Every structure is written in C-alpha cells, then in structure tokens.
Automatic annotation (TrEMBL), chains A, B:
It comes from Ornatilinea apprima. One of its GO terms (molecular function) is transcription cis-regulatory region binding. The keyword Transcription applies. Keywords: DNA-binding, Transcription, Transcription regulation. This is HTH lacI-type domain-containing protein. InterPro entries: HTH_LacI, LacI/GalR-like_sensor, Lambda_DNA-bd_dom_sf, Peripla_BP_I.
DNA sequence: TTGAAAGCGCTAACAC
DNA sequence: GTGTTAGCGCTTTCAA
C-alpha cells in the first residue's frame, strides 16, 4: 500500500491539512514543520495520489491529442515527430499526454465530446485541420481550451501555429520556373484538409504571376502516403504531354513519385524534377536527396503545446497566432527542364 | 457545470446510491427505477466524472507507454503504427493511452517509478527491449502489470510478443546465398537492443551452416535511422573487397543504404543487393521496392495491448508469450551476385 | 428494492 | 502557525 498524507500526519503527530500545506510549500507553515514533513514523506516513500489531486482540483493536468488515423496501417513519420514535440513539452511542464487514435468521423467527434464532458483532459491539441472542421466547431462552442496546428475556415478566434503553405508553394513554383519548367504536375493533399487550399492557392497565384497557363498544370489528389504519390505520378507521366516537374505536397508522396519516375527509367533531377514539403529527416537521405519546403514539425509541436498550457493555466487570455515563414531546401531532386 | 449523480438523484427523488447502482446496472434495482434514472441522466447530459470514478475504484483505466526517443527529431514510422495498434485496442476496451517520451536513461526509469507509485496508469507496455533492461527489472520487482514487444535477457516470467528475428535473418541469408552472394555487409541495430542479438545470431548461424567465412561478413552498427544506413553503407562500399549484399536490420536503414549505393552509380538489385526488416508500408514503394522481412507492427501493438488488459483485469494470470514466425517479402532490391 | 453512512486521498475556507 | 470541518463525485458496505 502506498503511503498517504494521512500516514505522514500520523507519523509526525500533525493533521493532514498541515502536511498538505507543508508539501505544497505554503508560507503559513513553519520551516521546521516543513522540514519534518519532507523528511517523513521521504522516509515513507510518499507520492501523492494523482487521481485524488485531480478530483479535488477539478483539473486533470492532461493534454488530449486525438490522432486522425487513416486506414489500419497508420505509418507516418510526421506523427511520431509531432507527438515527441508535444510529449516532451507537456512533461516538462508537468502535464500528461493522452493519445487516442480515431478515423475522422462521428466516432471521432463523439470522443472529443466525451473527453470534454467527463473531464478527462484539460485541453486539446488539434492536428491536420480540415475544411469545415467539426472538431473546431465543437471546441469553440464548448469554450474548452485548445490550440491547433493549422488554420481553419471559420472565425479564427483561437490560438494556432501554422506554416504559410501558400508562400511555401510560391517558393517552389518560382524555383522550378527559374529552372525552365513549363508543365507541372501537382500531387495535392486531400482537398478536405485545410492546408491543401493554401498550398494550391500558392501554386495558382504564382503560376498566374509567371504567366503559366492553367492547362499546363495538372493537379491530382493524393492521400499523403507514399503509395498515392507513386500511383499519381504514374498517371501524370502517362499523359501525352507529361509534366517535367512534379510538385508533391508532402515528402512521403514525393518519395513515391521518385520511385514511379525511376521505375520508368527517368533520372530524377534531370529527366524530371520532383519536390516535396515537410523536410522530414528522411528527405535528406533519399536518392536523390529531396528538394523540399522546410516545416519544423517537432518545434511546431512544442509551440502548440506551450500555447495550450499557457491558456489552460490562465497565464494568458490572448489569442496567439503564429504563421511560420517557410524556406526552400534545395537538394538534388530538381534540375533544368529537359529540352522538349 | 456538468451534471453529477447528485443532480440525477435530486431530479427523480432518489438517493445517489440508487442512481449509481442503476447506472451500473446492478440487479437489486427495479427496472422502472433504472429506466427513470437513465432517462434523467440522458436529459441532463450526464457523463460520469472520470477522476472521481478512478479515485474510488483505485484504478486508472489507463495504459502507459513511454516511447524511448532518440534525439530531438524523432521521426520513425514504426512508432506511429505501433501507437495506432495500441491506441485502437485500448479505446475499444475502454482504456486511455498515456504516452510519454523519454530518452533511455535515469529520467526514463524515474518516470516509470513515479507513474507506478502515483497510480497514474494500470499497466505498462514496454517497447524496444534492451539488453539488461532496467525498465523490466523495475516492473518485475514492483509486481506492476506490463507486457512487452520484445524479449529480454532476464528470466522471461512475463508476457510478451516478439518476432523470431533469428529465423528472419536466416531467411534473408539463405535467400542471398542462393542468389550467389559471398560477401555480406550487415548494418546492425544498436547492440544494446535485445533484438540485435537475435538477428545477428541468425546471420552467424546461417553463415556457419552455409560455410561462409567470418571475414566475409562485415558488421557495422547503425542507429536505426536512414541516415546511419546511408553512412554505414558508404563505409561498407569503401572497403577494398566490398560486399555484394547489404543486410540492413530495419527498413529505414535499408533505404539509407539504397541511397548511398545509388549515389555511387550502383544499381540496387543487380550491382548490389539490399534487404531490410519490418516491411513498413513505405518499403513497397521505394525504388526499387525493398526485399524485407515482414513484421506486423500494428498487429503486434494490438496483441500486446490486449494481453496487458487481460492481465490488468485479472482475466488471466497465466503468462502469455507469443513468438511470431517471420516471412520473407521478396521484391526487387536483390538480384544474383555480380561476377567478381 | 432502496437509503444512510462511510470513505477513496486530497485541498481549502475559516477559525483559533 | 496549525487544526477543524467540509467537500470534490463517486462506489460500496450495511441496514432497513
């Protein structure tokens, strides 16, 4: 049986109140008593009962993350890095991280509602925001603390971190155009993901600016997996006037694109240029190393968690919104457009 | 304010005792009362306060997973899949999943101890067991419920799931030998990881069986990242009598190995053969697709979680130990040994 | 079939 | 400075 505050009280002949306050370092307790309590606590190997504390304080010291899984085999390096960022920050600040996995849908939303109502967590972190994101609607209505990685198409009266995907894609387009590319294939994220819109907007706007005609840009929708990058690239390259540059909206799809191209005997970086987005660690060691847009996922996890904790603790009431400026990481997966 | 059991009691003019028992479907409560209670609960939108329940029941309905992170950028598809497997199973069985991230070391062990003593979780899942695994020692001594993915070099008196890595490597060696390879490079996992021993044992034993000399096998230790696969392959290929087959002990390192080889202008699958281990989804869409050993990570997560819950609930007291038989997934990253 | 009473382990308002 | 008392929301004897 674990020692309780009562055992300590008994041992030193004081009340539980005194012990509690000594342990929490209240200043209406004498130094001697505190010392006494601390010693007794150490001897008994006392550790507070978390659930009792939480019940009493009506807070859970827990942050909730519901990972939107897609499919049974959910293998995405993005999430392990994001979770690491959140997890390390949470524990440094004394919070637990409660992770659930749910496919987007009714069950997912029900899980949010339940966690809110049953006081399972003090706040949520939302990831991969969607167009008309019901999660955010629920959270906003409930007044429950949350922060998100990604913006949404509702009123942005909450705290978030996002990277400026529009700008990121403009960098990519500009770079490829400078290399002489005229026909582009785009492997877009699922269109219901909010960041998809920003990225596509960046592409279209920059294309317009550069005088690239709409029919020289073919956009096909992927699902962010390597597999879909592979399959879509095959479609793209099967077209009669196939693109010389393929813009994948994340690194995983870019890897798939490289495989598809290489399988056809094309040399990536000269016969065809391919770009990614995220700059996951793997992208540095692909063949060829991938030109991509940097997105500091670990740090975004850190920041978004930090912001949430500040809100939960009431250390700030202001809405914090951070839009990161992307940078292009040039490696060897792109080269001058081949002669037609 | 969320409705409590008290509100329900007041509303229907019964005591909290009755309500509690009705809600928990005790059979000393009349059907009518139960109906009444359920209706009132629904109307008030009642959801039990988790912390109160947990305090009272002295259990947390929570499973702990402490992910052994390595380095700040922790990007490993292995873990997202493993977490998905555990998470889905846990929630199906009514458990929460508490995830922490800790680099192996004292702080990590301290976290285990604290979580045990403060009743933060009901049991642990251990992943990536190590040689002389202090985590397992702590858990065994404390009598705290846990299961692991991976064996350990102590007395195996606990439940685990593991894949027979020795057998897996024998399959690889056999396959490569049959293709005519005579000189092998091995990119091993960190030697402190328990599975490293099994895999190396498989390689040595099969080599002996096939009459392959020890000096024809160079083993260099990686850290499971793509980067280390890349770097080690460069070392391997810099040797005067370089290997014609490179055996990477996980898929990520195999990808790195492919990049390094390709960067030197070697054709993977003919100039040099490369194998992996894990069969992560990506391995199907690399270029060339990777020959590897299947390891059903999602399903292992499911099983190990299921086993833990059975122990926690006391549904079984027996130790369950599952050793999965691996299978070789032959793709295009290997070919006949080139003429010397 | 139901209610009264106690208690899980902790904190906090208030009194002394 | 320290103790008294109450209570967080729930479950569970025990008695009626």
């Amino acid at each position: 049986m674990a020692a309780t505050i009562k055992d300590i009280a008994k041992k030193i002949g004081k009340t539980t109140t005194t012990v509690s306050r000594a342990l929490n370092d209240y200043d209406d307790i004498s130094e001697e008593t505190k010392e006494l309590v601390r010693k007794a606590a150490a001897e008994l190997g006392y550790i507070p009962n978390t659930m009792a504390q939480r019940l009493q304080k009506r807070q859970t010291d827990t942050i909730g993350l519901i990972v939107p899984t897609s499919g049974p085999r959910f293998s995405d390096p993005f999430f392990s890095e994001f979770i690491a960022g959140i997890g390390n920050t949470a524990s440094r600040r004394g919070y637990d991280l409660l992770v659930s996995t749910r496919a987007p849908g009714d069950l997912e939303l029900e899980t949010y509602r339940q966690h809110i109502r049953s006081h399972r967590v003090d706040g949520f972190i939302i990831v991969r925001t969607r167009h008309e994101d019901e999660r955010i609607n629920i959270l906003r209505k409930s007044g429950f603390p949350f922060t998100s990685f990604g913006r949404a198409n509702c009123e942005l009266d909450f705290s978030f971190v996002d990277e400026d995907g529009e700008q990121g894609m403009k960098l990519v387009m500009e770079y490829l155009a400078k290399l002489g590319h005229k026909r582009f294939g785009v492997i877009s994220p699922p269109s219901n993901l909010e960041f998809s819109r920003y990225r596509l907007k960046g592409i279209w706007d920059k294309a317009a600016e550069l005088g690239i005609a709409a029919h020289d840009i073919s956009i096909l929708e992927g699902d962010l997996t390597q597999r879909s990058g592979y399959e879509i690239t095959n479609q793209l390259l099967d077209q009669p006037r196939f693109p010389t540059a393929i813009i994948a909206c994340n690194d995983l799809m870019a890897f798939g694109a490289m495989s598809a191209a290489q399988e056809r005997g094309l040399v990536v970086g000269s016969d065809v240029s391919i770009t990614g987005f995220d700059n996951i660690p793997m992208s540095e060691y692909s063949h060829p190393p991938l030109t991509t847009v940097n997105q500091p996922i670990y740090q975004i996890g850190t920041t978004v968690c930090e912001m949430l904790i500040r809100r939960i603790r009431g250390e700030t009431t202001e809405v914090e919104q951070i839009l990161l400026t992307p940078s292009l990481i040039v490696r060897q997966s792109c080269g001058p457009a081949p002669m037609a």
